[in-house]
């Protein structure tokens, strides 16, 4: 896959991080003695649940918009998303004073539609299939001249997502491993590249549910695999890898660990109860992976990206 000629350099990666800093929060890195004891490893949680719009996706949305020409910015941006990226693009666009057109499936949670509206995104509702979402977004691009932003398979978005790992490695440069959940692959690809550039002998690992283990299978087969079903509580991880992020994952990710649904729920509950912070099920997948494979992480210094905290409080799994 001949994408590496476009790869960002370490210096460009640092510059991109500097550019987005005024528009994002530098999120805290938290630690829990009790969770370290339970997991048998020292974990440093990079808490992107405290990011603007409640998830790491604010980083990628901001990076992508800042990368547009003045002329393109004036016409605005469009994306299709059922949740976190929709909110991130709406808020990033509002911060930078440009229009945001958001295509959302009719099945998207009301709480997420309301958040997009609060952030000033102009919503178009469509049937909940990928084909319908793509067609609706294309129509808006044709009508408005707005630029399409992909939630996980666009290089400037991927690099933006990787800045969470840059910040974590600035604070803890001696991490042995950095683990993140994987759905569409944007966060994992950006993190893996950041680990390669800014880590010291640090491995990057992905975590995903058995119910949607397309990334695990893709890494094994060498081609992008799909999921027959998406029966997981981790609603942010139901999408699949793309041709921009997969080569980065192939090159820089050492492995992907799969977890069961009950392990995700337990990990989520432990973080809520012991750390007193709200994390969404998708975020808990990385912690679940460490609990499942304790031997692999024992005695290691482990970094973990808590990807988001946008939870439907009326529909908790515990």
Major sheet strand order: 1-2-10-7-8-9
The gross shape turns out to be globular
| Poorly predicted spans | 1-5
What is the top-level CATH class of the largest domain? Alpha Beta
Would you tell me the structural class of the helices and strands?
A: alpha/beta
**Strand segment count:** 10
Strand content: 15-25%
**What do we call the CATH topology of the largest domain?**
Rossmann fold
Please identify the oligomeric state.
single chain
Radius of gyration: 18 Å
CATH architecture of the largest domain: 3-Layer(aba) Sandwich
Structure explained in plain terms:
Its cofactor is pyridoxal 5'-phosphate. With 318 residues, the chain is an alpha/beta fold. The strands form 2 sheets. Strands 1-2-10-7-8-9 form a 6-stranded mixed sheet, with helices on both faces. Strands 5-4-3-6 form a 4-stranded parallel sheet, sandwiched between helices. The chain starts with 9 loop residues before the first helix and ends in a 12-residue tail after the last strand. It is globular. The protein has helices at 10-20, 33-39, 57-66, 70-75, 84-95, 110-118, 130-144, 155-161, 163-171, 186-198, 214-221, 245-252, 261-275, 281-292, 294-297; strands spanning 29-30, 42-47, 77-80, 100-105, 122-126, 147-148, 177-181, 203-209, 255-259, 301-306.
